[in-house]
Specification:
This protein is of the alpha/beta class. Helices cover 39% and strands 15% of the residues. Helix 4 packs parallel to helix 5.
Length: 411
């Protein structure tokens, strides 16, 4: 049975009917949020019930917007590991360091959760085609779930989007368009064309259900921590769905009475070349302003004017959080340390969280005994690797083989 009660505007509170395909608030154009009858969820579901269900994001069905008999469009998203980073923690002097490795999702990023949920709902509610502006990974995931749902998909990405994400979308049969500029330019194209085609616009937070998919990261994290909250959560922030989603998970779990802790302090991490949230945070502004000339190799962070800037900043304020931007060099260095000490080849966006953590530690203000979670949003393999030395080639005379190997090993 569905526990969704209604979908309301995050700013003016106007109620919308979830039986319709919804986009943004029909009154004021702001972001919509799904609301549940949480008292009924609390009466119908126990933590023990959950334990008996298989892993994956639909085990939290009562906290998803799915109708009674609605079949999810799924590739097995969710159920990602919460990894204890012992060696990295020792290296940094942080004994309780953890990573939620969202690179383990189908399509290699947490975008699978959001698009899995949004495509499920869009199909059920009668969408005949899907269109999405993307920095890469969202487009790839939309294409994959669209293929799974049997719906046509069009993706609009900046020209310099990572190759693997473009290939992923093309392979899944999506129509891929490129454009000069950033995801903001792509977004304008989609909002112009999609309504005229009668296709559904899946832009970040311009429909209410990608958020509900990403919320399941927070539900899982809480469960993996024995229904508690970490002290600090570092999140690589582009459009902000994950940040707002994890926070929403902790809000709902508090109402259910399942988590007694206050929610984690959220740290929004951005790249120095595109940091509208950090800028607004530092200037104590309640809203973001468009970032001119966004440049960063972390494609998912190249979001110059996030639609939900206001909501992200609210999460940072309410959790006594922080926002900081890191350099491209710091991102590459963090990517290398994480791989070398823990074996995780993470995406540049995700590596930015470690770069930010190192900064916070070096600056002092960090509680080193606290439980810290890095939200690793994607797998490194979806991006061009950082510059690396070439492998040593062993072709040549057998007589000198051992010598050459020894010298390469430094023995
Ligand atoms: C999209 C993306 C982000 C940014 O996520 P938001 O929820 O839009 O803030 C971060 N990392 C990766 C790998 C992404 O694909
Ligand atoms: Zn409104």
């Amino acid at each position: 049975m569905s526990f969704l009660s209604h979908v309301e505007c995050s700013v003016c509170g106007h109620c919308h009917d979830p039986k319709q395909l919804l986009t943004v608030c029909e009154k004021c154009g702001q972001m919509l949020v799904a609301r549940y009858r949480l008292d009924r969820v609390a009466a119908a579901l126990t933590k023990e019930d959950l334990q008996r269900r298989p892993p994956g994001m639909f085990r939290f069905r009562e906290l998803t917007p799915l109708d009674d008999a609605e079949q999810p469009v799924t590739l097995g998203e969710g159920g990602t590991s919460l990894l204890r980073l012992t060696r990295l923690g020792n290296h940094l002097g942080l004994p309780h360091l953890l990573a939620k490795d969202e690179g383990q999702n189908p399509t290699g990023t947490f975008k699978a959760r959001g698009l899995g949920m949004a495509v499920t709902r869009a199909r059920t509610l009668g969408a005949k085609g899907l269109m999405i502006p993307s920095a890469g990974n969202a487009g790839g995931a939309a294409a994959a779930y669209g293929a799974r749902a049997g719906l046509p998909v069009a993706v609009v990405v900046p020209r310099d989007t990572p190759e693997a994400a473009v290939a992923e979308a093309l392979l899944a049969g999506a129509h891929v368009f490129t454009i000069e500029g950033s995801i903001a330019t792509a977004g304008k194209v989609v909002s112009n064309v999609a309504p005229q085609l009668g296709w559904f616009d899946l832009s970040t937070l311009k429909e209410p259900y990608r958020l509900e998919g990403k919320k399941t990261m927070g539900l899982e994290l809480a469960e993996q921590l024995g229904w508690s909250a970490p002290d600090l959560l570092l999140y690589p922030t582009g459009g902000g769905t994950g940040l707002v989603g994890i926070w929403k998970a902790y809000q709902e779990l508090a109402v259910l009475g399942w988590v007694k802790d206050r929610p984690p302090k959220f740290v929004a991490v951005q790249a120095e070349g595109c940091a509208p949230v950090v800028k607004a945070w530092v200037e104590k502004s309640p809203v973001t302003t468009p970032w001119e000339n966004p440049v960063t190799r972390a494609a998912g962070l190249r979001v110059p004017s996030p639609f939900a800037g206001r909501q992200m900043l609210q999460v940072l304020r309410e959790t006594d959080g922080d926002a900081l931007a890191v350099s491209e060099a710091e991102i590459v260095e963090a990517q290398k340390i994480l791989a070398r000490l823990e074996g995780i080849w993470t995406a540049p966006e995700a590596a930015a969280t470690l770069a930010a953590l190192i900064r916070l530690r070096d600056q002092g203000g960090l509680d080193r005994r606290g439980r810290i979670v890095l939200l690793l949003t994607g797998a490194g393999i979806k991006n061009a690797p950082p510059p690396l030395p070439p492998p040593v080639d062993l072709t040549g005379p057998a007589a000198t083989l051992l010598e050459r190997v020894r010298s390469a090993l430094g023995l």
